[in-house]
Amino acid sequence: MAEKNEFTDINGKAILLDCQNYSSFCREFTVSSPKVSLCKVIVCTCSVWLFAYAVFFVTENTAVLSSAIIITLVGMMMHIHLVKVEHETLLIIGSLGVQLSTSYASGRESTTFIEMSRIKDIVINEAVYMQSIIYYLCILIKDSGDPNGIASVVPLFQSSKPRLNCLVQVYKSCQAIIAQTR
């Protein structure tokens, strides 16, 4: 059963949470960000190129135009390949573990798997960001030396940064699966 809900991120931009229930032990959560705005890309590119043309007009140096074109094209490619995230996915399987996937606008994907035996808990944490307090979902990894200790914290949905109301929905579903496996 698929369930789609619209939420906002910490900046007020619309994001989409897609919940897939495969079984009582397996759920997938996908947070999707808006696509790259073609209008913004055109405005930025035209602004840089018009500025470069104005500098060329004054200096009569063709290297200014060539470098402006190269810089904007390389900048756009790097933004699409390294920065712009289309969606982030959390797949939790009660008997196996948690798989985290990030898909970028260029099609590149980054995937991490954490075994259930290494997971201490999944919690909502808070942090001070700029001049406000934000909430984020994270996985607490067990410390192998200390049974009550935490070795590391793995934040979830780092790029989309959903608000608390979205995180609570994901948190409750994850806790239900973790409770069944223990």
From TrEMBL:
InterPro entries for this protein: PIG-H, PIGH-H_dom
Organism: Electrophorus electricus
Cellular component terms per the entry's GO annotation: glycosylphosphatidylinositol-N-acetylglucosaminyltransferase (GPI-GnT) complex
Domain Phosphatidylinositol N-acetylglucosaminyltransferase subunit H conserved: 89-158
Lineage of producing organism: Eukaryota, Metazoa, Chordata, Craniata, Vertebrata
Pathway noted in the entry: Glycolipid biosynthesis; glycosylphosphatidylinositol-anchor biosynthesis
One annotated GO biological process: GPI anchor biosynthetic process
Family: Belongs to the PIGH family.
UniProt-listed PANTHER family: PHOSPHATIDYLINOSITOL N-ACETYLGLUCOSAMINYLTRANSFERASE SUBUNIT H
Protein name, entry field: Phosphatidylinositol N-acetylglucosaminyltransferase subunit H conserved domain-containing protein
Gene: PIGH
